[in-house]
Specification:
With 259 residues, this protein is an alpha/beta fold. Helices cover 36% and strands 19% of the residues. It is built from seven helices and eleven strands. The protein has helices at 34-52, 87-102, 132-141, 161-173, 192-207, 231-235, 244-258, and strands at 17-20, 58-64, 75-76, 108-114, 116-118, 145-148, 155-160, 181-185, 188-191, 212-215, 227-228. The protein has a four-stranded parallel beta sheet with strand order 1-2-4-8. A three-stranded mixed beta sheet has the order 5-7-9. A two-stranded parallel ribbon has the order 3-11. Helix 5 crosses helix 7. The longest helix is centred in the N-terminal third of the chain and has 19 residues, at 34-52. The chain is globular and about 55 Å long. The two termini are 36 Å apart.
């Protein structure tokens, strides 16, 4: 409850690091409203107010790759322009600004800009079923042909859930990040076509699945043909294992068990 003035009392007294996961799922912006933005802003304000009254000295705010302005063949680094006008992107950008401006000066803030994290859902209240790889795998379990609306050569970056959890833990414990600022965290750069075909071939070989995919847009040269630069994270020990095979097979087995 963001209206609770004593929210800071809910934080453990000996906590020194806070990780903020709050924020709406991307699909909710199909019906964006002013009330939704107000709710996000008020919730973030309440979290910051609680942190400012606590003993926390470091905050990791989960943000998104979507805040960047994607330009043809551009490399998205922490210095890339943040002029993306998409409502979901603007929401993450506003949340970053809110943390940067209203946290106490002695509290360090890392805005962790994530890519497409995928993997087994931790619960059924999250947004995992709307993730690209999750949707493809789930369709194969059901024996469906998954239709893809994106152009085949659209570039994305994919990070397994296991890598995200491991790297987030390392970041929390790391003493290398001593200044506030943004940080890109990602995994493998691949086109929509490459990752989709990899999934289909893997499941045919390992699980004898005869599903498939269909691209609705056969045109080439996507406007989102970018690369995601995570050099800062890698230089400071945050390198993913990128075990896509393990993650995809575990995801298939999870959805298969639900049938």
């Amino acid at each position: 409850d963001y209206k609770n003035p004593n929210r800071h009392l809910m934080l453990p007294e000996n906590s020194r690091v806070a990780v903020n996961f709050t924020g709406p799922p991307a699909h909710s912006f199909k019906h964006k409203s002013e009330n939704q933005e107000t709710e996000i802003r008020n919730t973030t304000s309440a979290i910051i107010r609680a942190i400012n009254q606590s003993n926390i000295k470091r905050v990791i705010n989960i943000s998104s790759i979507h805040i960047y302005t994607a330009i043809m063949d551009n490399v998205l680094s922490e210095l890339t322009s943040l002029n993306n006008q998409n409502p979901y992107a603007q929401s993450h950008k506003n949340k970053e600004i809110q943390f940067n401006k209203t946290l106490k000066n002695d509290i360090q803030i890392t805005n962790l800009r994530l890519v497409n994290v995928f993997g087994i859902p931790t619960d059924y209240k999250g947004d995992f079923d709307n993730l690209f790889i999750n949707q493809i795998v789930k369709a194969q379990v059901n024996g469906d042909i998954y239709e893809i609306r994106n152009r085949k050569d659209t570039m994305r970056n994919f990070l397994t859930r296991d890598d995200f959890v491991t790297l987030l833990k390392k970041l929390i414990l790391s003493k290398k990040f001593t200044k506030s600022g943004p940080l890109n965290l990602g995994g493998i750069d691949a086109s929509i076509c490459e990752i989709a075909n990899y999934i289909i071939e893997l499941l045919k070989t390992e699980r004898n699945i005869q599903g498939g995919i269909r691209f609705l847009d056969q045109s080439k040269t996507s406007k989102n043909n970018f690369k995601f630069n995570c050099n800062l994270a890698v230089k400071n020990g945050l390198s993913p294992r990128n075990d896509l095979k393990k993650a995809i097979l575990e995801l298939y087995d999870f959805y298969n068990a639900q049938c």
